[in-house]
């Protein structure tokens, strides 16, 4: 018979194996999308939060979370909450390391708000800090396209948000 | 929840929805791949904002309409969007200036809506505020680059400004609906956003070597359901599949 604390840990472990559909090198836990887990007997309630308002992956994430927990819990409930709004500050240290290893720069330094924006700390490939923005928008809502002026490689950057 | 509050919510929701539809028209047509992707990304954010607000409007209305019913099964006179966003895309300068005038309004509006007495609206607005700030950075950058660019880009930006400016002020005109929503703490009074919008728009236009036009008689009526003929055409395209196959599922 496992204790309630164990079952909560089980749920988090299972969630840690659910990859983000658009950034599959990191899990929904790494990204801070999975916010809360509550277990009551054989029933688990997972609270998730969307990254951007129009994130098209939200439904898929909900489906994947459900599928991952279905083998362990009889009833899986997924709640979507908007507030407090997701921020890249919730990406875990492990998530940041995993992003970098797959060639995606994790959120970097925030400059003054609005018109100035933010920038990656370093090129995820060679580590050089001499990088420049190619486009403020990238292949997904959460990324921008940058390039390294040292190794000349372009790379994705998860915008500080 | 009174009709006035639902109505006030639709004014924001429909403005986002119609703009998203306009921006989607650029998909595959933008002057560079990066801008194609950028416009699609902005459209996606704005569409997400619209979906959240439409869903909430449907809940508050309590007449059984969900986001799809509100988006696809209303006719032009039932839409409450700003006239600005239904204006055709024109060239890239025209689209970017329209976006800038909208974004400069959105960055004033969302932080206020984030303290709405309705917690669902506040949640949607809290996310949208961050997105709008990023969109503004992009659109303001293009207004500056094109305004202060070549003779040709300056000429096009100037023509767009003449065309769009009369539609820019509608967002700040109060009526009874707005006053009721403000009194209920649901949304800010439109006129309260004007000073911040004006300061930002004037600064960017000046930086772009573009003139700040004098205030005209602001074109109005979109927020009350009186639209230009442009909206009817836009809706015909946006709604055709849903109306041709009612209740269809993937």
Describe this structure in words.
The complex is a heterodimer of chains A (161) and B (250). Chain A has three helices and nine strands; from the N terminus they run αββαβαββββββ. Chain A folds into two domains: 4-86, GMP Synthetase, Chain A, domain 3 (2-Layer Sandwich); 93-158, no CATH class. Helices cover 21% and strands 25% of the residues of chain A. Chain A is elongated, with a radius of gyration of 17 Å. By secondary structure, chain A is α/β, with parallel strands linked by helices. The longest helix of chain A has 13 residues, at 58-70. Chain A has helices spanning 4-15, 58-70, 93-101, and strands at 34-40, 43-48, 75-80, 104-105, 109-110, 118-119, 131-135, 143-148, 154-158. By secondary structure, chain B is mainly α. Chain B has a single domain (3-244), classed as Ferritin (Up-down Bundle), CATH 1.20.1260. Chain B contains ten helices and no strands. Chain B has helices at 3-24, 33-61, 67-72, 83-86, 92-113, 119-147, 151-168, 176-183, 194-207, 229-244. In chain B, α2 runs antiparallel to α6 (119-147), α5 (92-113) crosses α7 and α5 packs antiparallel against α9 (194-207). Chain B is globular. The chains are: A alpha/beta (161), B mainly alpha (250). The A-B interface holds A 50, 52-56, 81-86, 113-117, 134-139, 141, 145, 159, 161 and B 34-35, 37-38, 41-49, 51-52, 107, 119-120, 122-124, 126-128, 130-131, 133-134, 136-138, 140-141.
């Amino acid at each position: 018979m496992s204790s309630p604390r164990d079952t909560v840990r089980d749920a988090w472990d299972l969630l840690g194996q659910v990859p983000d559909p658009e950034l599959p090198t990191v899990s929904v836990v790494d990204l801070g999308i999975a916010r809360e887990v509550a277990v009551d007997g054989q029933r688990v309630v997972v609270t998730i939060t969307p990254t951007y308002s129009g994130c098209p992956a939200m439904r898929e994430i909900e489906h994947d979370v459900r599928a991952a927990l279905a083998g362990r819990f009889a009833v899986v409930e997924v709640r979507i909450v908007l507030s407090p709004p997701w921020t890249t500050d919730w990406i875990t240290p492990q998530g940041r390391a995993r992003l970098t290893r797959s060639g995606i720069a994790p959120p970097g330094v925030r400059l003054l708000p609005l018109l100035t924006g933010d920038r990656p700390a370093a090129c995820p490939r060679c580590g050089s800090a001499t990088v420049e923005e190619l486009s403020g928008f990238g292949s997904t809502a959460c990324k921008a396209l940058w390039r390294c002026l040292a190794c000349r490689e372009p790379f994705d950057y998860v915008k500080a948000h | 929840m009174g009709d006035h509050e639902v109505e006030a919510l639709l004014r924001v929701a429909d403005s986002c929805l119609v703009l998203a539809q306009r921006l989607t028209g650029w998909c595959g047509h933008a002057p560079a791949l990066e801008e194609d992707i950028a416009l699609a990304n902005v459209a996606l954010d704005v569409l997400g904002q619209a979906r959240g607000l439409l869903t909430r409007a449907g809940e508050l209305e309590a007449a059984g309409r969900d986001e799809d019913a509100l988006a696809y099964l209303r006719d032009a006179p039932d839409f409450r969007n700003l006239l600005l966003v239904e204006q055709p895309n024109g060239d890239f300068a025209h689209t970017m200036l329209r976006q800038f005038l909208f974004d400069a309004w959105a960055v004033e509006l969302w932080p206020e809506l984030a303290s709405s007495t309705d917690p669902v609206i506040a949640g949607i607005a809290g996310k949208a505020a961050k997105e709008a700030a990023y969109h503004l950075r992009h659109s303001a950058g293009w207004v500056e680059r094109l305004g202060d660019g070549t003779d040709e880009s300056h000429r096009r930006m100037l023509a767009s400004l003449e065309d769009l400016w009369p539609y820019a002020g509608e967002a700040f005109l109060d009526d009874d609906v707005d006053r009721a929503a403000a009194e209920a703490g649901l949304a800010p009074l439109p006129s309260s956003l004007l000073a911040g919008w004006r300061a930002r728009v004037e600064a960017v236009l000046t930086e772009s070597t573009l003139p700040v036009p004098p205030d005209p008689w602001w074109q109005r009526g979109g927020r009350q359901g009186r639209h230009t003929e442009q909206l009817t055409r836009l809706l015909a395209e946006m709604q055709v599949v849903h109306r041709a196959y009612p209740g269809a599922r993937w």
